[in-house]
Amino acid sequence: MRNLVWMGAALTCLVLNEPCAAQSPRVGRESLLDQIPSSSPALREGATLESTAGSFVRQGDRLVFVLPGGARLITLENLNLQRVADKLDVDGASLSWTVSGQVTECRGAFYLLITRAQARRGVQQEARRPVSTARRRVRQ
User: Fold this and answer.
1) What whole-number distance in Å separates Cα of residue 121 and Cα of residue 135?
2) pTM of this prediction?
């Protein structure tokens, strides 16, 4: 069991592109999300985001959802995130987003499993239909 915990910590270091505790004088659970203020009680395991405005930034190989207050949620891979990443590759990071999803917490870091994401453009382009990652029904 102890080896699994160590392997999980090592994988986290690799994924987040951070030095592990053995390579650095830092001790503890430093991560991308240590910047989240402790005054964000809504960001806890099981919390749900519903149509929350924010933006995505690339952090290494990961996408991080940034809330207007500066809180950051590491996104978990799923098809919705793949669609967001594809849209960012085409249009760049200048889009703002409305996102719904489930917040999870592990080792002091906060993660977001996206259930729905809509890209929003600037006011002059708002008339165009926003991109949605929600599943569409197929007529048969």
Assistant:
1) 21
2) 0.60
| Helix (H/G/I), strand (E/B), else coil: 7 | helix
26 & 37 share domain: no
Same domain, 13 and 71: no
Are residues 26 and 56 located together in one domain of the fold?
no
Judged by DSSP in three states, 40 sits in coil
Structural domain range at position 65? 33-140
CA–CA gap between residue 12 and residue 62 (Å, rounded): 12
My answer on whether 85 and 16 are in the same domain is no
- Per-residue pLDDT tens over the stretch 85-118: 999 999 877 789 999 999 999 998 999 999 999 9
Q: Can you tell me the distance from the alpha carbon of 106 to that of 115, in angstroms, rounded to the nearest whole number? A: 19
> Within a 10 A sphere around the Cβ of 63, how many other Cβ atoms?
21
For the chain, the domain total comes to 2
Exposed/middle/buried for residue 122 (C-beta within 10 Å: 0-12, 13-18, 19+) = exposed
4-48 residue pLDDT tens = 444 444 445 545 555 444 333 333 334 444 444 443 555 788 999
- Are the CB atoms for 65 and 100 separated by under 8 Å? no
